[in-house]
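haha ok so turns out i had the wrong file open the whole time. this is the CORRECT one, sorry everyone. sequence first:
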Amino acid sequence: MVRVLRLKQRSYRTERTYIHWLRSFYSHVKPAIPSELTDRHIIDFLSYLAVERHVVKSTQNQAFNALLFFYRHVLEKEVGEIRNAVRAKPKFRLPTVLSPVEVMHLIDHLSGVSRLMAKIIYGGGLRRDECMRLRVKDLDFERNTVTVRAGKGDKDRQTLLPESIVDEVRQHLCNVRHLYEADRKADIAGVQLPGALEKKYPLASKEWIWYWVFPSARLSQDPRSGVVRRHHMSGDVLRKGIRNAAKTVGLAKRVTAHTLRHSFATHLLENGTDIRTIQQLLGHADLNTTMIYTHVARKNAFGVRSPLDHQPA
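then structure:
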């Protein structure tokens, strides 16, 4: 399974996720051997996830996609009818959104690189991992844009680079350049490149334009190749920073880096940006996914007042 995933150039995160579900599937169907597996085993497993583990619809779909890949590309079997599987019920959940004042209070209580990452995420609506994986070439200071490469769904998109943080980003890159130069003097292996680019352009991994905007302070071993190189920062750095800042500010909400992305979309909507533009900036494939922000936008932005506000004091 791992060999085929890598031949098809699936991301490392996809590889880990698919292997996780394959292990769970194996535990559920054993002692059946691979040659004995049929559609019935998938139906039973999906039903088990819905009935006994009470997973949400997206989790059940993720498990099915992993098993579909395994059947098609490893067992070389086509999956037939799975209509009889118990389907997990879709659940409607509203995103947590901060007000503009709360966002600025949160950012003011962050420091260092975490503060800059939070500004980029809120300023352009990036996902946390998209921010972590930014490379120097993805920042366009002339057009004030950020290019997200291989985002969710393996799609590229462009979003906003706030003008107010351009100087801060430039200064940050100057500091990162010192680390880059030190890596070159120490003859450390170049950064990891996407897909087969490392084979096609063997020297590109040591070029400045491919260097991480937020490199890790430590070297680490590549889990696939075993090469010791510099990776981008861990998402835990920002996660812990935001959690501590939210406690300090006293926000009575569960605040994560993704909350800043939700706030970006909601505030654009409240300021009159059309929903399709927001969809493009967020990188949503389906407009219905973006429409959820209409449920959390302040109704006053559309001229609607609560009937209680019309009553005499």
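DSSP finds 13 helices and five strands in the chain.
again sry for the mixup
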